[in-house]
Amino acid sequence: MPSQQITRWPIILSPPLKTLPSTSIPPRPILPLSPPPVLQSTYPPLPYNSPGRTGPFIPGYTISTHIFPAAWPRCPSSLFAPPTGMGAPLGKEAAIELAGRLAEKKERQEKGDDGREVGKSVLWTVGNRVVRNGAGSRGLGKVKRKGEGVTLVFLHGIGTHKETWEPTLRRLLNGASSSRYGPQIDEVWLLDGVQHGDAALLNEGLLGDTFDLVDYARDLMNFALAYLPADSAGDLPTNLGRVPEAEIQNRREHGFKSRTVVGVGHSLGAVYPAVLYPSLFSSLILVESFTIPEYIKHLDNHRKNETVCLRRQWAWESKEAAIEYVRRSSYYKPWHPEILREYFQYAFIETDDGGYRLKAHPFLEAIMLLERVSVYEAWQMLADIDPKTPLHWIWGGKSKRGGGIEVQTQTTYRHPGLNSNVWHPGVDHLLPQEVPDLLADDICQFLGVQYPSDLQSKL
After folding, report:
1. Which residues, other chains included, contact 46 with Cβ-Cβ below 8 Å and sequence gap of 6+?
2. Is residue 128 a contact partner of residue 65, using CB atoms and an 8 Å limit?
3. I want to staple 116 with a disulfide (CB 3.0 to 4.6 A). Which of 76, 87, 172, 338 is the partner?
């Protein structure tokens, strides 16, 4: 459904009349966040055919691209070369067989029966920083008060990339700066998952056949604890250095001295960091969060989605052929035209032989879709988030990933503290791709209530 046909009046979900029974899924122990065995001077360069960004983003804001290590170590995984070549990577039967083998490995890993060692390869995260010109310059000589300027950290869902947020972000920044009630947004970080976008290019040859979505949450914790600079002032080097260990420990215990950090996640959510380090995030915005109770697992197309993903085309003879393929696909038809332009520009690269391919092989998406346990663990952990941490839920009314409106309501109010929500009828799971304008309005309204501008706070 084209975004302009979707109603601009969302529904607010009321607390459920009854609580549906659920099976307790105790969260598994997670790996520590250890310093990786690399030096800042030895980070890999950005690929020549995807060199990164620098310069104006919108009036008043500048964009730049940065590299830093992902969480280390990682879950056990074996190196695996995905099928390559033009056309569909695999036939139907071969894809079903491969999905079965990968699922068996993943299920052993989830049960704690994986005999392989933890992953010791250093993987890389690529992030785009969008900073307000002059941010951090107010109050020179003193520590900036929390709340004077918000820092947003965005995580994308499976199959997309950091730039998928940019249409939403442009609207959000323009809306916040033009409204007397809007929040002052000093800095924004858009992060690629290690399997996606520019990070997938840097990590080619290092990624294996098993992925744990807990590692995606650990990547966010790793960034917030160890690589996010202390404040938003000034330019940054392409290679982000690790902050001092004393600062990391202080953030674990007390959060940031001069930042108000808000996490924004699509699909995979950001629940683990809020439970383990509640002081890091002032609030969370969960867009169609794939955080579900175990009792609806029968609704999930287990292995079917993975098999379809393994058969997706990922390389074409020309850019024109790739664009034509996307335009004919029913999967992309609901996407907003601006999102499709971003997708063509940032999800693909030109190859040495003049062809055109996705930066991330569909195999890497498929092994993420095999995840089961962590989404149930995350739902369980909602009840343990600090009640003082606001959670804002943004739901698609057509989406089945969250279990439909009854389960979406249960999920929204499982957190015992401050909750707010909007539910958009006519929108599916890929809400950031379908309605970036509505999403920007939702986020701006929530931030304006939680973190009003200096002007509003003085009224």
Report:
1. 52, 65, 67, 126, 198, 202, 238
2. yes
3. 76
What CA dihedral angle connects 153, 158, 159 and 160, to 10 degrees? -10
Cβ–Cβ < 8 Å for 71, 33: yes
Cα torsion angle, 151, 157, 162, 168, sign: negative
Find all residues with CB under 8 Å of 250, minimum gap 6, and list them.
257
Distance separating alpha carbons of residues 112 and 109, to the nearest angstrom? 5
Q: The pTM is what?
A: 0.94
Residue 33, SS3?
coil
DSSP at 162: G
Quick one: CA torsion of 178, 182, 184, 188, rounded to 10 degrees? -90
Q: How far apart are CA 383 and CA 370, in angstroms?
A: 25
d(CA 155, CA 220): 8
Give me the torsion for CA of 271, 174, 238, 351, rounded to 10°. 90
DSSP 16: P
**Coil, strand or helix at 201:** helix
Euclidean distance between CA atoms 258 and 148, whole angstroms? 9
CA distance 210 to 109: 8
- Is there a contact between 10 and 442 (Cβ–Cβ < 8 Å)? yes
Residues of the chain with pLDDT under 50: 1-4, 138-144, 147, 455-459
Q: How far is CA 143 from the centre of its chain?
A: 30
- Check residue 300 and give its pLDDT: 67
Provide the domain limits for residue 138.
Answer: 3-458
What's the CATH code of the domain at 222?
3.40.50.1820
- Please report the sign of the dihedral spanned by the C-alpha atoms of residue 138, residue 170, residue 224, residue 133: negative
Q: How far apart are CA 249 and CA 143, in angstroms?
A: 19
- The residues facing 301 across adjacent strands are none
Task: Supply the pLDDT for residue 2.
Answer: 40
Strand order of the sheet with strand 150-155?
A: 54-58, 61-69, 124-132, 185-191, 150-155, 260-266, 283-287, 391-396, 419-424
CA distance 115 to 248: 32
How many domains in the chain?
Answer: 1
Count CB atoms within 10 A of the CB of residue 175: 18
Residue 135: the pLDDT is 86
Nearest to 453 by CA among 186, 256, 137: 186
